[in-house]
Amino acid sequence: xxxxxxxxxxxxxxxxxxxxxxxxxxxxxxxxxxxxxxxxxxxxxxxxxxxxxxxxxxxxxxxxxxxxxxxxxxxxxxxxxxxxxxxxxxxxxxxxxxxxxxxxxxxx
Length: 108
Fold this sequence. Notes:
The chain has four helices and no strands. By secondary structure, it is mainly α.
């Protein structure tokens, strides 16, 4: 592994930690903020690593699911946490794929 990919892993971990914080502290109409944070973080992950972004996206999905199932944090709203976790899995994979494709197009 090169240092660039390790730096992108660190960025991905930091962004995922921020997303987990937003998911577990969202109340009421916080779903818009939660989905926006998920979309932006996934787009960033895909754009940083156009060829290996799927590894970072799978890492983000694994962190989201492990935090939810291991009950590491107590959420403000359990329904919002469940929605954010499971919607975040799909959003993370799709947006990182789209951003990776866009980054590849801009490379040429």
